[in-house]
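Would you mind writing out the residues of a protein together with its fold in token form for me to study?
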Amino acid sequence: MDGVIQLEKRAVGGDEVDIGDAAFAALVDRHAGLMYRVAFSLLRNPQDAEDAVQETLLKLYRTGGWREMQDERAFLAKSVWRVGLSRMGTPGAKAMRYAEDVTEVNLVSAEASPEESALGAAERELMRRLIEALPEGFRQALVLSAMEGLRSAEVAEVLGIAEGTVRTRVMRAKAELRRRFLERHAAKEGRR
């Protein structure tokens, strides 16, 4: 992730584009990580996600659109989401997004004991696979709200759906994850 922030600073603060605006650089520092995670959750490819973040930030800087933002997180998440959607339509992008493994979801506290960490690693991997197997609408709403910490209204704006629909999708995604997790866990226990 540090690579993305450095790439963004070079792209907007390097020789080609002279920013001269500390406010924009601060905006990049605050939100490049979130933008990358949002783009990655859609594109599922590190290079495509980095490109989407760079393209979004360059467009915002060149148009000055970043100066009129009301809610930075929601505005930037929605902007990078739109760029990501447009990138999905490019030849080869859809195939490439499945070529890379999705980053591991951190579902265990950093203060876990070594025993809990060892047991939790298998469960985290299972949970990662279960999240990836969710229907796209459920997965997107869950990733943006539960993992990226966006509020329902922000997720609704990013996805272009009603806030109630976001809540329903997140609730159904969690229920489906719980069901699948318990099903697999029970099957695993039955084999012992």
